[in-house]
Amino acid sequence: MPPSRDVVFVDGVRTPFGKAGPKGLYAETRADDLIVRVIRELMRRNPHLPPERVDEVAIAATTQIGDQGLTIGRSAAVLAGLPKSVPGYAIDRMCAGAMTAVTTVAGGIAFGAYDVAIAGGVEHMGRHPMGEGVDPNPRFLSENLVDGSALVMGMTAENLHDRYPGITKRRADAYAVASQEKVAKAYADGKIQPDLVPMATRKAAEGWGLATEDEPPRPGTTPEGLAALKTPFRPHGNVTAGNSAGINDGATGSLIAAADTAAELGLTPKMRLVSYAFAGVDPEVMGVGPIPSTERALRLAGLSIGDIGLFEINEAFAVQVLAFLSHFGIDDEDPRVNPYGGAIAFGHPLASSGVRLMTQLARQFGERPEVRYGVTTMCVGMGMGGTVVWENPAWEGAK
Amino acid sequence: MSGITGIHDDEAVTHALVRDVTLPGEAGTMALITLDNGFDHTKPNTFGPRGLTELDEALDAICERSDLAAVGVTGKPFIFAVGADLTGAARVRTRAQAEEIGRLGHEVFRRLGELEVPSFAFVNGAAMGGGLEIALHCTYRTISSGVPAVALPECFLGLVPGWGGTQLLPRLIGPANALKLIIENPLSQNKMIKGTEAFKLGVADAVFEPADFLEESLSWASRVLTGEAAVPRPPFTEDAGSWEAAVAGARALVDMKLHGASPAPYRALELVELARTAPRDQGFEAETQALADLLTGDELRAGLYSFDLVQRRAKRPAGAPDRALARTITKVGVVGAGLMASQLALLFARRLQVPVVLTDLDQARLDKGVAYVHAEIARLLAKGRIGADTANRLTGLVTGSLTKDAFADAELVIEAVFEDLKVKRQVLSEVEAVVRPECVLATNTSSLSVTAMAAELRHPERVVGLHFFNPVAVLPLLEVVRGERTDDASLATAFAVGKALRKSGVLVKDAPAFVVNRLLTRFMGEVIGAVDEGTPIETADHALDGLGLPMTPFTLLQLVGPAVGLHVAETLHEAFPGRYKVSASLANLVKAGKPGVYAPDFTIDPEAREIFESQTIGTAGPDAEQVRQRALGALAEEVRLMLDEGVVAAAEDIDLCMILGAGWPFHTGGITPYLDRTGVSEKVTGRRFLAPGVASVPD
After folding, report:
1. Which terms are listed as keywords in the entry (chain B) (predicted)?
2. Which has the closest alpha carbon to B647: B656, B422, B117?
3. Which domains, ranges and CATH numbers included, belong to chain B?
4. Which residues of A touch B38 (CB under 8 A)?
């Protein structure tokens, strides 16, 4: 950075997230139908954008087979009814798929290759369980390239507790309870609903229904309740279903544009891209990934952690958020962090989560003109982290 | 209920699955009913007594609730609902059963329009007959722009839209538009309209794209409920003048097409007239009475029989060999470059998408033939029926050759040369000299013997008759003729080709003029014979109007051309001199070069009249009723002889041929149901063609 052209986040929308599995909202709904619905809603919400002005459709999915295969970005664009002249492609950086879709098209915009792009992600973990069809090279283990626990995300979270012995199960559970409470409050305050697009859900035996809210949140979660949960990854361990994100289905999408094009078309930016960075760490402690990626992104932006007024950090595991906060000296209960709650409650349909963070940060920017900068950050399997630094166009200091 | 459940033992029950939907925009909760029979879209939702009862029970449960803002109805993927279960309708025996079907449909469907909360139909897929009527009962409707078929096909079959359609639709979209759906479309080859057209007619209040049709429909429903979206509709008018004008216009159309031959459209007209002023109960009861009359009448049974022939029997031709025996066709040869040959070349190229070579001995004729095909392709392109790439492809596929060498690698060669046995034999032997032994040789003869044509070939087992009907691109019938020595593989190939050409193949024996021409010529022979005896042309030509045929005999003669008619008559006369006569006047008409007896303004051409009158044998020919009796008697006699000769497997195949090849109507069931129900079969042949109940009300 700095980019040759300013890049802005114009709008973001997502389907409600569902619980994966045969009883979940989307048990009989196709993954491509989820992302198609999101793309159509983005276009509908931005009538000033002529569809033929979309220059790229970048859609992420971790498991790119079946209804998440066939170059999902292109096939979703066709299914969504965008002009055939609009190209598309598929992206994969596991959990940071949608985030990478955004940064990749942003790079293209900054370079001048695009004016406007759609970037998003979809993951139907019910139809495509984690690890479906993977074939890890035996050299990973034979040459000790990674630890045996590196491919099981829950084990990497347990490993993180070892690295940060001060982060106890009690702290992790307390963080999880707070996340559930924040989501319940955000729903009650109507902060979440505007960024959702209702999704038709058909089950052969039940007929058509309509998903209008996230299915995973468990309001009323208590520390006592969480304390009783099993620790499936380690006997007497720390990581439970209660202090982790679940296994979920959902899709997200965003409209990313050059600032000049947004102005030309009358699209109102909700965030301005300042910098982004990805970083690698040891795969067996992938949860620390956001630390080096954030340090790098801040350095590129010429900012320090103290300049950041809002954090949207993906809650794959409570321990991973707490490790990040503890590294930067931020309190567990700091109100700048995930004000609407996070993935422990909302759910985490892998490749789609990155844009959920951005959509929520954008809404907070709108309400918080005193905040100038925010970050969206997340950890990624195989030992990575990703961070995007955003500036608030509504920042009062700019006036 | 008990009276009609028994006739639907095998009902594919359309279930009414109910789920609560939280409507966006705080519009409240909707109970959303999904109609789903549990099968995929190839077996659409239909309504029988059990399905209606399930819907009724679902509405009972809904009515007990006080927390609902609205009720919705939608279908399974691709299908909304396509109407009453016809298999059950065909089994109705008594008037009481028929009335019960009518009343049950009304009682259940009307609840949707009489709830305490508004109801919405979300027409996501095909909606026909009762399927459209259930939507009409709802307070509001949305429709998907992807819906391929919206129709009230009842009059096409011999019914009326009798579950509210005739009463609700005219009041919703006005009598003129309603009659388009109720009368005009069903009587125009059962035309269906698409979702967008249905919206434009006012059948639906809003139209949404299929990609997120249900979501957008629910969002619209919420806005309607909260008052955010207005639902503009044309004001209802009881103005007698406009209703009378609309009904009179439709009646003229029905008269022109049917001459009173089938009661259903007339009943529909009466019901639409009634809808102007009749209260709901009265209108619905009138529908029930009309349904009961029609369900206990033979015209409808013939309609259902015809529908079944076209839907089922046409797809599984009786006597056709195993499909697996068919050989792959990668190239086709056409001998001849005349109009028929060129039409065939175009059809083969379009449907099989393989190279097609026309041959003719004369370069000029050949060039003309190929040019004709290329021009037709250009026309398709200009009309937007095909794209530029396809036009290029098709144009490249059709070529001409002066020699038959070009057939060397063809798997099918069809000849369409002059109707002369010697010429055709010569042509086939020349082709055989070039092609591979398994190449199928087909003849498009309309009356010559396929067996005789093949007799002198080295491989007579590969010769089949493929008798197309003019215009080739339009008429769906293909008579597939098996010669005495035709083998199964060649025959299977012929059927496979017919299917690929989107024709319905019917297997016929190698008998003079096969099925359609033999019957039409016999029929026409009686009409022309009457004129020869002194009956005025007009009288004879209109003597059979009561059947509601697509055109009068002399109009048909004009369409095929007197020369062709004469030729077929001569061939049949040679085969069956006792029954087929050659009219001297017809021969004179051909000699005079007349296109027929009608002048361009559809009056009788005085010169044609003179040709006939100068030859009149008697002083006074038979009157109209006598002409009718004779013609029908002749048909019955000929059909019986054809069945006895084994020309086709069964009377059903004769009827299928007459429906698909001659356009004879559903309400006559082709021809044998009509001959049976008018008593002609028994009078002339001593027996019926079909058992009672097959195409008539069971005894």
Report:
1. Fatty acid metabolism, Lipid degradation, Lipid metabolism, Lyase, Multifunctional enzyme, NAD, Oxidoreductase
2. B656
3. 2-296 (3.90.226.10), 323-509 (3.40.50.720), 516-646 (1.10.1040.50)
4. 204
